[in-house]
C-alpha cells in the first residue's frame, strides 16, 4: 500500500512532479499550502499540488506517482482533512473534474427514476441544489455538506437521518493496484456509519458517482426528530413511518438548521472554519451503556444521567448502541467556545462537536495544526477520563495523529 508517511527523497519527487507538467488537464504548483485547500485552513506546503481538471488526468497522475512510489493524497474540497504544519514529502492530487449529467430511467410517463452522474470534483451542494430544482427527491437531507461528490461514498456522508448510501447507484473507481477503471456497486464498498472500505486506505480513487433519485419530488423518509418537527410532522410518527415531504421544503429547513449550528461554510464565520463534526458518535456494546450512565450520574447527577441520549447503532451493528459525542463532550466540561477567548483553536460557539480555527491566538500568532491537534487531544482525554468512552476522530489525519 502507499502510505503518505513513507520515506521519499525530495529530489526524486521533484523530478517525478516535473514530469507531470506534460499531462493534459494537470496543473502543477509547488508553493500551495494545505491551508488554502482545507476548510480548517490549516496545514503546511506539500512537495507539490497537482490540480486535475479531467478524470483521465487524475488516473494518469495517480498512476505515474504510484509507479514511482511517490506518496500522494487525493483532495476534493478539503473539508474532512486535518493536515500537519509540516506535511512532509507528499503530493496533493486535487480533483477538479466536475461534469454532471441528469437523465431518467425510462421515458416520459414510463420514467421510474432520475439518474444523476457526477465527476468526482463536482461540488456536492451544487448537485443537491440541482436535483431539488429538477424536482427529484433523495439528496435533500444532505444539503449544505461541504466538499466534493467523489468524497461522499468515502465516508458515506450523512446528516439529518439520511446517508448517501440510500441513493447511491454506482461508483466509478480507479483501482491503484491494478490500474483499472471500473464501475462498482455500493455493496462492494461496505458502506456504514461514516465509513466505507475506501476510507483510511489508498486502494482506489473515486472518479465519478451515480445516484438514483425519485421523480416524485418527495424527500427520503424523515427520520430526524428536529427536522420532522420543523416540517410540522409529529416526531413519533416520523420515527416509525414513511413520512416524506417535498424535497425543496426539506432542503430549505436542513440549510436553516445547519446554519444555526455553523455547519454551512461561511467565510466570515470562524465557527465554520472546521472539518464539521470532529468526532464520530461512539458506538459501544449495549452492555456498557449502564456503566457509562453510572459515570454520568457520578459526575453530573442522576437527573442528567437519565437524559443521556442512546440510539440503536444501526443495521449490521446488533448488540451495539450509539451515544452522542456532542452531549458527552459538553457534560465532560467542554462548553461551546472552549477554552475561550484568545485561544487559537476552540470549540465552535454554535456546536460542541466542531473544532475550529480562530485564525490567530490572543497575541496575534497564527493558528497552527498543532494548536488544533492539542485541543482534540484535550477533549478526547477529558471525555475518556470522565466517562470511559474513547472518541474517534471523523476526519482523515495527514502527517499528524491524535495519539501523539
Ligand atoms: C462545516 C462542515 C460540515 C460538515 N457536515 C458534514 C455532515 O453533515 N455529514 C458528513 O458526513 N460530513 C460532513 N462534513 C465533512 C465533509 O464535508 C465530508 O466528509 C465531505 O464528503 C468531504 O468531502 P471533501 O471533498 O472535502 O473531501 P476531502 O476533505 O478533500 O477528503 C477527505 C478524505 O476523502 C478522500 N477523498 C476525497 N475525494 C476522494 C476521491 N475522489 N476518491 C478517493 N478518495 C477521496 C481524501 O483522500 C481524504 O482521505 C462537514 C464538514 C464541514 C467543514
Automatic annotation (TrEMBL):
Positions annotated as active site in the UniProt record: 194, 277, 394
Alphabetical keyword list: Cell cycle, Cell division, Cell shape, Cell wall biogenesis/degradation, Cytoplasm, FAD, Flavoprotein, NADP, Oxidoreductase, Peptidoglycan synthesis
Chief location category: cytoplasm
Origin: domain of life: Bacteria
Name of the featured protein: UDP-N-acetylenolpyruvoylglucosamine reductase
EC number per UniProt: 1.3.1.98
Keyword Flavoprotein annotated: yes
Gene Ontology terms: biological process: cell division; cell wall organization; peptidoglycan biosynthetic process; regulation of cell shape
GO molecular function: FAD binding; UDP-N-acetylmuramate dehydrogenase activity
Top enzyme class: oxidoreductase
Pathway named in the protein's UniProt entry: Cell wall biogenesis; peptidoglycan biosynthesis
HAMAP family tied to this protein: MurB (MF_00037)
Required cofactor names: FAD
Annotated SUPFAM superfamilies: FAD-binding/transporter-associated domain-like, Uridine diphospho-N-Acetylenolpyruvylglucosamine reductase, MurB, C-terminal domain
Keyword match S-adenosyl-L-methionine: no
Compartments in which it is found: Cytoplasm
Start and end residues of each FAD-binding PCMH-type domain: 42-294
Reaction catalysis annotation: UDP-N-acetyl-alpha-D-muramate + NADP(+) = UDP-N-acetyl-3-O-(1-carboxyvinyl)-alpha-D-glucosamine + NADPH + H(+)
Gene this chain is encoded by: murB
GO cellular component: cytosol
Pfam family membership, one: FAD_binding_4
Lineage, highest ranks first: Bacteria, Bacillati, Actinomycetota, Actinomycetes, Mycobacteriales
Cross-referenced InterPro entries: FAD-bd_PCMH, FAD-bd_PCMH-like_sf, FAD-bd_PCMH_sub1, FAD-bd_PCMH_sub2, MurB, MurB_C, MurB_C_sf, Oxid_FAD_bind_N
Similarity section: Belongs to the MurB family.
